[in-house]
């Protein structure tokens, strides 16, 4: 009887510890994706991509573990979908970000798919929903 009670208590403690761990603090290797430039952030393979979109300019900031990524030789192609309207833009390095200037429809809810190629690394597909 004592052995079964001990096993029951041990199992309950083990299960409780697992639940507390799952609901508690984030893991050490995780990092928060906070907007640093007022845009929308998406994280792919521990790299933060922040898209700042206005009617006249698109800027894509790239950072790896809080440090700005090297953008020399980088490029990005954005496809923006808003209702039945589709727009595309090509971004090039400018002022610490990948940038394009023009006239863009960037209403809340617009879906954006970016193909981002940093020099010497494979291209990444990054998705955003504008707010």
Give the biggest beta sheet.
Answer: 9 strands, antiparallel
Q: What is the second-level CATH architecture of one domain?
A: Sandwich
Please tell me the overall pLDDT: 84
Q: What separation lies between the terminal Cα atoms?
A: 60 Å
Which spans have pLDDT < 50 for at least 5 consecutive residues? 6-14, 16-29
Rg calculated over all Cα atoms: 22 Å
> How many β-strands, per DSSP?
9
Number of helical stretches of at least 4 residues: 1
* CATH fold assignment of one domain: Immunoglobulin-like
Protein model, in words:
By secondary structure, this protein is α+β, with helices and mostly antiparallel strands. Helix content is 17%, strand content 44%. It is built from 1 helix and 9 strands; from the N terminus they run H-E-E-E-E-E-E-E-E-E. Strand 3 and strand 4 form a beta hairpin. It starts with a helix and ends with a strand. About 18% of the residues have low confidence.
Annotate the secondary structure layout.
Layout: H1 2-23, E1 40-44, E2 47-53, E3 57-64, E4 67-68, E5 75-82, E6 85-94, E7 97-101, E8 111-117, E9 124-129
Antiparallel strand pairs: 1-2, 2-3, 3-4, 3-7, 5-6, 5-8, 6-7, 8-9
């Amino acid at each position: 009887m004592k052995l079964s009670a001990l096993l029951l208590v041990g199992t309950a403690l083990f299960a409780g510890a697992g639940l507390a761990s799952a609901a508690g603090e984030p893991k050490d290797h995780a990092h928060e994706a906070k907007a640093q430039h007022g845009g929308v952030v998406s994280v792919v393979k521990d790299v933060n991509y922040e898209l700042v979109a206005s009617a006249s300019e698109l800027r894509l900031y790239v950072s790896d573990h809080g440090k700005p990524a090297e953008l020399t030789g980088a490029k990005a192609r954005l496809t923006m979908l808003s209702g039945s309207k589709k727009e595309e833009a090509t971004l090039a390095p400018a002022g610490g970000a990948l940038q394009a200037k023009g006239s863009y429809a960037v209403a809340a809810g617009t879906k954006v798919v970016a193909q981002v190629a940093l020099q010497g690394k494979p291209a990444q597909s990054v998705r955003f929903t504008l707010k």
